[in-house]
Amino acid sequence: MVKITLDIEGMACGMCESHINDAVRRAFSVKKVTSSHAKGKTEILSEQLLDETDLKSAIEATGYRVTGIRTEPWEKKGLSLFRR
Fold this sequence. Notes:
By secondary structure, the protein is an alpha+beta fold. About 25% of the residues lie in helices and about 35% in strands. It contains two helices and four strands. Strands 2-3-1-4 form a four-stranded antiparallel sheet, covered by helices on one side. Helix 1 packs across helix 2. The longest helix is centred in the first third of the chain and has 14 residues.
């Protein structure tokens, strides 16, 4: 799994977050996508690496501007009662 964090300009409300989340879901098969207009960020969890150019194009087609993209490996952190 990978976590992709996008810095996005132009989000002002919850509807802006929804527009970006919907655009990502339409263009890619992802596990989870969340956006925050207060932080100016979108986080995507995906099983595979997404093409950055296609991702940027999908979001910018909705009228927002991607100013940064960071990708890192992601592993689910669960509560384990058996961990030492």
